[in-house]
Amino acid sequence: MTKGGIMDIKRLYAFARIVDIGSITRAATILRIAQPALSQQIAALEAHFGKPLLLRSKRGVVPTEAGRILYAHCQQIIKQMERAELDISRTSEALTGFVSVTFAPLSLGPTIAVQLMAEVKRDFPGIMLHVNENVGGVISEQVMTGKTDLALIFDPGGLPSLSFETVRTEELYLVTHDQSFTPSGEGGLDPAKEVRLADAITLPMVLPRRIHTVRQVLDTTLARAGLTVQVVAETESISLLAGAVSEGLGSTILPISAAHAIRRRLPDARILRIRKPNMKVNMAICVSGQLPLSEPAAAVRDRLRQIAQNIVDE
């Protein structure tokens, strides 16, 4: 026991070993401590708690009820100490290597890619980070084959060879520059903020290609409702979508993060939540379900998760 009554971790470890082995004599040999000294440590613990912790007999020792309670806490304390030592030791081991991250277009990726690069440079200077943007279907194949370590994409579902961890769920919104467009407000909707899908698709649309998960969700919903949409052009580029909407070529339907990205380029664009029915997509970190991540890639994945979660919390 140290000054102030603070417990000595070594005494707790010795006590746990005695209980595991069932003998003070054998524990002293394994711990390389003289038996009298080990007995004194147990006596000091018993004096601290004011209760006997071990029952001694010719066949060895067993814990008392108080001893069993202390033993359970010792196990947790020892595990925490081992974990702390491991975490601290890792801080001195500089991670080095090449890590590739791919972001699906129209996702949260463009918003957080620069922040990810900055934080990796600051905290893991030995990691060379390669960041790319590509179409969702191609990204899935790249992760499967190991061409990219991890990706932030819209979860397409039904791909057992991949592992998805959802970090954000977004509803789809109408983005339009048509100031004459007036939602009906039927069904109690607020026409200043919301629009029915049937009303939204009366506008000509510039949409992502059918390979993109956002387009697949939209097409599936339209088919179920027996609706059709006039698509005048297709692109996954935020800048091109913003230009098309600005020039009145058409409106678009996008997740909210992409919708805000367009309004940053086109401040007077209108963003209306699509309801009746509403549509959602899951943004997820995608890794191979078969190829293990390297330590540098795992560190980048954890940081990507943290950044995405912070944005969700905000």
From TrEMBL:
Alphabetized UniProt keyword annotations: Activator, DNA-binding, Transcription, Transcription regulation
Keyword DNA-binding: yes
GO molecular function, one term: DNA binding
Biological-process GO terms, alphabetical: regulation of DNA-templated transcription initiation
Protein name, as recorded: Transcriptional regulator, LysR family protein
Origin superkingdom: Bacteria
Domain HTH lysR-type: 7-64
Similarity comment text for this entry: Belongs to the LysR transcriptional regulatory family.
